[in-house]
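Re: How this chain folds, sequence and tokenised backbone to follow
How to read it: Take the token row as a discrete description of the fold.
Start of record: The labelled sequence and token lines come straight after this line.
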Amino acid sequence: MKVSFDVDEPLPPLDAVAKCIDDAWADPKGSALVDIGDRDRILAIWVRDLPVKEVVGHLSNDPAGWTMPAWAWFSQAVDNPDPFRANPYNLPMSADYRAALAESELILAHFVDLGVLEYEGIHGGREVRIRVYRKSGSSHIQARLGERVMDVSDRFVDQILFDFMPLPGVRSMILQMLDQVGDIDEQTPQEEATEWASPTVNATHSFVYPSSPFDSEPVAVSSLGMLEQIGVAVPFDELAAYAESNNEDITLTAVIQRDGNAWKLELVEADSEEYLTRGLNSDN
């Protein structure tokens, strides 16, 4: 049985992240490494066509004493958006910084010790243990509540690496969740357990460009990979077959909108009122 709960989320130290970016901009080599918390570091690099060794060679990133080191490039959050990953277009930073992140002119790397999440003791009157382990190259969290062992959602790791959530705050979130799990056992009816669950939110990220001419509606651009995550499939085979049946190049417009509980994709040829295909591509 999988159940989700609402928990109090800590505020990420985005001021410290912005300071790291400022320090990198002021650095002649365009790089800076800043501690934003205990065993929690941000590396910022402005792309200036310098050799990698020259850019980072003067920085010291010694993880001595770290028990479960992990790191990630923020570009993964840009390329694979997720509700628990920071949206580069919506970060509380200057427009120049946001654009540089989105266009990979500014590179961020996040180094953390996930061992900070580990806990063993009495919490809420129950024996609790939180441990971090690696499997297939990825970090995962497992919790023991009394005699019950359960896997904890990987969203917590994502929030640390890609949303800059502080490690102690995420550990508190997990402990809050375990407090609520303790009130549900294997004999709890499914209907009652479901009432505990917080709603699942699907999020999408788009970059909005001004239209030309400006009196037209703006254009929102989303990656195909993001659309596939919410179940929208683009019928490339049908498009290829249609293009082959025409001697001239054609321009197609795609309209994706919700139709009840499904997504509907409609393709229309430019300067034509005829829809080429209609498909219900998702039940999400």
Notes: Residues 207-282 form one domain.
